[in-house]
Amino acid sequence: MTDTDFTLLDISLYTEEPDRRVVTLRGLDAPVMPEIPEGAVISVGLTFRLGREIEGVAFEDSRIREGHVLATVRTVLGGFRAGGPYEVRLPPERLPVGRAHRGVYELTGRFTDGDGRELAVIRHRIRVVCQPEAHKRWAAKMAPGPAQRLSGAAGESLAS
Fold first, then answer.
1. Mind listing the pLDDT tens digit for each residue in 121-142?
2. Which of 32, 37, 114, 130 is the most exposed place for a label (fewest CB within 10 A)?
Protein backbone atom coordinates (compact mmCIF):
# COMPACT_ATOMS: atom_id res chain seq x y z
CA MET A 1 0.00 0.00 0.00
CA THR A 2 1.36 3.43 -0.92
CA ASP A 3 0.61 6.89 0.46
CA THR A 4 -1.29 7.75 -2.72
CA ASP A 5 -3.78 4.89 -2.25
CA PHE A 6 -5.74 7.00 0.26
CA THR A 7 -5.65 10.79 0.61
CA LEU A 8 -7.72 12.51 3.30
CA LEU A 9 -8.79 15.88 1.89
CA ASP A 10 -10.97 17.17 4.73
CA ILE A 11 -12.51 16.22 8.05
CA SER A 12 -15.13 18.54 9.52
CA LEU A 13 -17.75 18.68 12.26
CA TYR A 14 -21.20 19.77 11.13
CA THR A 15 -23.46 21.15 13.85
CA GLU A 16 -27.24 21.23 13.46
CA GLU A 17 -28.32 22.46 16.87
CA PRO A 18 -28.20 25.02 18.44
CA ASP A 19 -26.98 26.66 15.23
CA ARG A 20 -25.78 25.45 11.87
CA ARG A 21 -22.04 25.63 11.19
CA VAL A 22 -19.09 23.70 9.79
CA VAL A 23 -15.90 23.34 11.83
CA THR A 24 -12.86 22.15 9.88
CA LEU A 25 -10.57 20.11 12.10
CA ARG A 26 -6.94 21.08 11.54
CA GLY A 27 -5.04 18.62 13.74
CA LEU A 28 -3.37 18.86 17.14
CA ASP A 29 -1.17 21.80 16.13
CA ALA A 30 -4.05 24.03 15.03
CA PRO A 31 -3.61 27.65 16.23
CA VAL A 32 -7.21 27.79 17.49
CA MET A 33 -9.05 24.90 19.14
CA PRO A 34 -12.65 24.62 17.89
CA GLU A 35 -15.31 25.21 20.57
CA ILE A 36 -18.54 23.23 20.32
CA PRO A 37 -21.45 23.92 22.70
CA GLU A 38 -22.61 21.12 24.98
CA GLY A 39 -25.83 19.50 23.80
CA ALA A 40 -25.05 20.33 20.16
CA VAL A 41 -26.11 17.84 17.49
CA ILE A 42 -23.00 17.06 15.44
CA SER A 43 -21.98 14.82 12.58
CA VAL A 44 -18.53 14.15 11.15
CA GLY A 45 -17.93 14.84 7.47
CA LEU A 46 -15.11 13.02 5.68
CA THR A 47 -13.73 13.87 2.23
CA PHE A 48 -11.10 11.63 0.65
CA ARG A 49 -9.63 10.47 -2.66
CA LEU A 50 -8.43 6.97 -3.60
CA GLY A 51 -5.55 5.99 -5.88
CA ARG A 52 -6.96 2.48 -6.34
CA GLU A 53 -10.16 0.56 -5.63
CA ILE A 54 -10.46 -0.28 -1.92
CA GLU A 55 -13.07 -2.58 -0.41
CA GLY A 56 -14.39 -2.29 3.13
CA VAL A 57 -13.17 1.21 3.99
CA ALA A 58 -13.95 1.89 7.67
CA PHE A 59 -13.58 4.93 9.92
CA GLU A 60 -12.85 4.44 13.62
CA ASP A 61 -13.41 7.43 15.90
CA SER A 62 -11.87 7.37 19.40
CA ARG A 63 -12.64 10.05 22.00
CA ILE A 64 -10.15 10.64 24.79
CA ARG A 65 -10.53 12.97 27.75
CA GLU A 66 -7.94 13.41 30.49
CA GLY A 67 -6.04 10.36 29.21
CA HIS A 68 -9.06 8.01 29.30
CA VAL A 69 -10.68 6.52 26.20
CA LEU A 70 -14.37 7.35 26.58
CA ALA A 71 -15.66 5.70 23.41
CA THR A 72 -14.54 4.19 20.14
CA VAL A 73 -17.02 3.88 17.30
CA ARG A 74 -16.26 2.01 14.07
CA THR A 75 -18.30 2.83 10.97
CA VAL A 76 -17.94 0.79 7.79
CA LEU A 77 -18.12 3.21 4.87
CA GLY A 78 -18.07 0.58 2.11
CA GLY A 79 -16.11 -0.12 -1.05
CA PHE A 80 -14.93 2.69 -3.34
CA ARG A 81 -13.46 2.81 -6.83
CA ALA A 82 -10.25 4.69 -7.59
CA GLY A 83 -10.93 8.42 -7.87
CA GLY A 84 -13.01 10.84 -5.93
CA PRO A 85 -13.24 13.03 -4.08
CA TYR A 86 -15.73 11.04 -2.03
CA GLU A 87 -17.71 12.83 0.66
CA VAL A 88 -19.30 10.86 3.52
CA ARG A 89 -21.31 12.22 6.45
CA LEU A 90 -21.52 10.02 9.56
CA PRO A 91 -24.79 9.71 11.51
CA PRO A 92 -25.59 12.67 13.80
CA GLU A 93 -25.22 12.49 17.57
CA ARG A 94 -25.94 14.81 20.47
CA LEU A 95 -23.08 15.90 22.71
CA PRO A 96 -23.76 15.42 26.43
CA VAL A 97 -24.84 18.30 28.65
CA GLY A 98 -23.39 19.14 32.05
CA ARG A 99 -20.33 20.41 33.82
CA ALA A 100 -18.70 16.96 33.93
CA HIS A 101 -18.74 16.76 30.12
CA ARG A 102 -17.20 20.17 29.39
CA GLY A 103 -13.53 20.48 28.52
CA VAL A 104 -10.97 19.38 25.98
CA TYR A 105 -11.40 16.13 24.04
CA GLU A 106 -8.75 14.53 21.87
CA LEU A 107 -10.32 12.82 18.87
CA THR A 108 -8.49 10.22 16.81
CA GLY A 109 -9.87 9.20 13.43
CA ARG A 110 -8.43 6.06 11.85
CA PHE A 111 -9.21 4.78 8.37
CA THR A 112 -8.70 1.10 7.53
CA ASP A 113 -9.40 -1.16 4.57
CA GLY A 114 -11.36 -4.42 4.58
CA ASP A 115 -8.26 -6.37 5.67
CA GLY A 116 -7.68 -4.07 8.66
CA ARG A 117 -4.69 -2.27 7.13
CA GLU A 118 -4.37 1.33 8.28
CA LEU A 119 -4.92 3.88 5.50
CA ALA A 120 -4.66 7.12 7.47
CA VAL A 121 -4.81 8.52 11.02
CA ILE A 122 -5.70 12.06 12.06
CA ARG A 123 -5.73 13.53 15.56
CA HIS A 124 -7.44 16.74 16.61
CA ARG A 125 -8.88 18.45 19.67
CA ILE A 126 -12.15 20.17 20.41
CA ARG A 127 -13.38 22.01 23.49
CA VAL A 128 -16.94 21.38 24.66
CA VAL A 129 -18.19 24.60 26.26
CA CYS A 130 -21.15 25.69 28.39
CA GLN A 131 -24.33 26.60 26.59
CA PRO A 132 -27.05 27.92 28.94
CA GLU A 133 -29.77 27.27 26.33
CA ALA A 134 -29.01 23.52 26.40
CA HIS A 135 -29.78 23.42 30.14
CA LYS A 136 -33.13 25.15 29.61
CA ARG A 137 -34.14 22.64 26.91
CA TRP A 138 -33.16 19.60 28.95
CA ALA A 139 -34.69 20.92 32.19
CA ALA A 140 -38.04 21.39 30.43
CA LYS A 141 -38.09 17.68 29.51
CA MET A 142 -37.16 16.37 32.96
CA ALA A 143 -39.69 14.87 35.34
CA PRO A 144 -40.55 16.86 38.47
CA GLY A 145 -38.17 16.26 41.35
CA PRO A 146 -39.20 15.33 44.91
CA ALA A 147 -39.42 19.00 45.92
CA GLN A 148 -41.77 19.87 43.06
CA ARG A 149 -45.54 19.45 43.27
CA LEU A 150 -47.31 17.24 40.79
CA SER A 151 -50.36 18.75 39.12
CA GLY A 152 -53.42 17.19 37.51
CA ALA A 153 -54.63 17.63 33.95
CA ALA A 154 -56.58 20.78 34.87
CA GLY A 155 -53.65 22.20 36.88
CA GLU A 156 -55.06 20.95 40.20
CA SER A 157 -52.61 19.71 42.79
CA LEU A 158 -52.50 15.94 43.26
CA ALA A 159 -50.51 16.20 46.48
CA SER A 160 -53.29 17.71 48.62
1. 998 888 999 987 655 555 455 4
2. 32
